[in-house]
Amino acid sequence: MNPSSFLILIPFFPEQASSFALEVDLFYLFLFALTGFFTVLIGAAALYFLIKYRRRSQGEIPEQIEGHLKLELTWTIIPFLISMFIFAWGAKIYYQMYTAPADALEIFVTGKQWMWRAQHPDGQREINELHVPLGRRVKLTMTSEDVIHSYFIPAFRTKTDVVPGRYTMSWFTPAKTGTYHLFCAEYCGTQHSGMIGKVVVMEYPDYQAWLRGVPREKSPAEAGAQFFTSLACNNCHLDGKAGRGPALQGLFGTDVKLANGSTVKADETYLRESILNPGAKIVGGYANDMPTFQGLVTEEQVAMIIQYIKSIGPKQGEATAPAPKPAAAAPSSAAPVAPAAQPTERPASERPAKPGAP
Ligand code: CUA
Fold it and tell me: Tell me: the pLDDT tens digits for 332-345?
């Protein structure tokens, strides 16, 4: 018997279908047992004292007690240690759940009244379903087109708010094939209770076969490259050199020096803000020239443009390590805004040099 399956014997737990499930359940059971233990202990003590020290005659005055240092220290220090243990264990689980590994398969999720859209790295889309491969790390980058939703997969023990105006992240490693519930766990309007779906965990070859069976659209990065041209971004963000706007090659994940002297990391949130509210963070050496694209692009399109910018920049997770390669040749004759064919697989040697920060 799988050592992790004993909790399934308790009928009101959902299946344990991700690598997080066992530890979350153990933690939950620990809290449950701890609460039960003290409930019984305190209840029994109350009952015992109630009887033992009951008033035996009318007008009986109890003996006054000044205090008892040892007793008071005991009931202060023991709960303190217990709560610190709960804090440390909970923080460990939280840290694991909210630190996505750099090599995860990245799926983009959009919440919208009242459906869930997902797009896989090669462009396959699905609605109210999520197909994921067994045993691979999967990272969901999520945002909302309207109100706050919450992406809840009970069998994975993951629940993350999906918030308009920002990206939130959830990751997991599916540990068991099968079909599981997907819920919206944040009241979001009339059809909130209908904003449900299913998560299908498949063996990796089956997942690949499934991907092949879904009509493949452009990958998000390719579609983003197209928007980049059709929205005329490339008129100012020239290919590999500074134009009216800063060059975007090699930008993703690096630190950007702003006009006000501060520094910001070029992550998804920064890029999104710079598309929708360009004046918020002006790059040093540039004017506040860019028009806003608020209302002109959907969240999905913004995400695609970001995927494109990612595909021409350092890979995630590598950004903090300085590139070992010295002075790479300046990207010169490359076709302007060529849609990257393998957006996520570019070897380090192909990556353009860091843009010359003015
Ligand atoms: Cu979306 Cu509730």
Answer: 433 343 333 344 44
3-state helix, strand, coil in the chain (%, to 5): 35, 20, 45
- At 326 the pLDDT is 39
What is the side-by-side order of every strand in the sheet holding 168-172?
125-127, 115-119, 105-112, 138-144, 168-172
Spatial neighbors of 296 by CB under 8 A, at least 6 apart, are 231
- Cα–Cα distance for residue pair 34/40, rounded to 1 Å: 10
The closest-lying atom of ligand 1 relative to the alpha carbon of residue 187 is 2
Which residues, 6+ apart, have CB-to-CB distance to 333 below 8 Å?
A: none
Handedness of CA 265, 270, 274, 278 (dihedral sign): negative
**Is residue 149 in contact with ligand 1, taking CB distance under 6 Å?**
yes
Q: Which atom of ligand 1 is nearest to the CA of 111?
A: 1
| Beta carbons of 156 and 17 less than 8 angstroms apart | yes
Cβ burial, residue 117 (10 Å; 0-12/13-18/19+): middle
Determine whether the shortest distance from the Cβ of 30 to ligand 1 is under 6 A. Answer: no
Which portions of the chain are predicted below pLDDT 50? 1, 3, 316-358
Q: Residue 205 C-alpha to ligand 1 middle, in angstroms?
A: 32
Answer whether 184 contacts ligand 1 (Cβ < 6 A): yes
